[in-house]
Amino acid sequence: MARFGSIASALGLCLVTAACGNPSQQIMNKEDMLAASGFKFVPANTPERQAAFTKLPPHKFMRQVQGDKVVYVYADPTICVCLYVGGQKAYGAYRARVFDKQLADEQATTANAVYYMDGWSWNAWSVGYPVGWPYVDSIYNY
């Protein structure tokens, strides 16, 4: 049993490390999603652009309304020293991609949780009660 605990601890540590990941890798993944969603890459390659660039918060969306159009700007001083600029359509596509990725990550986590439950026993939890009671009676309506 102690061996199982140490294996589970090591596996948990690996999962946490992978989930946290490298911040630069997370930023690169975000930028890949921005580009795939229709945001345009604009480098801060002139002194004027660099001066304006330093006034923006890093790695955050800024929203600006210009007439009847909404413009979203994302500044990256870490990887590309650039702006990603897009409209409402690009921002909506980006948010949809983020949602899809979160859903996929959650499904992968749930699949791993089902794997861990294979050896689970309700015996210690259900002494004198039906299996899983009272935790699942709202689901199965015994």
Describe this structure in words.
Helix 2 (23-37) packs across helix 4 (88-116). Mean pLDDT is 75; it is low at 1-19 and 137-142. The protein has 142 residues and is an alpha+beta fold. The chain has a domain at 40-98. A hairpin with a 2-residue loop joins strand 2 and strand 3 (69-76). It has helices spanning 2-20, 23-37, 47-53, 88-116, 137-140; strands spanning 40-43, 61-66, 69-76, 82-86. The protein contains five helices and four strands. A four-stranded antiparallel β-sheet has the order 1-4-3-2.
Query: In order across it, which strands form the biggest sheet?
Result: 1-4-3-2
Low-pLDDT runs: 1-19, 137-142
Helix content: 40-55%
- The general outline is elongated
Beta content = 15-25%
Whole-number mean pLDDT: 75
* Count of helix runs: 5
How big is the Rg?
24 Å
The sequence of SSEs as H and E is HHEHEEEHH
Number of strands: 4
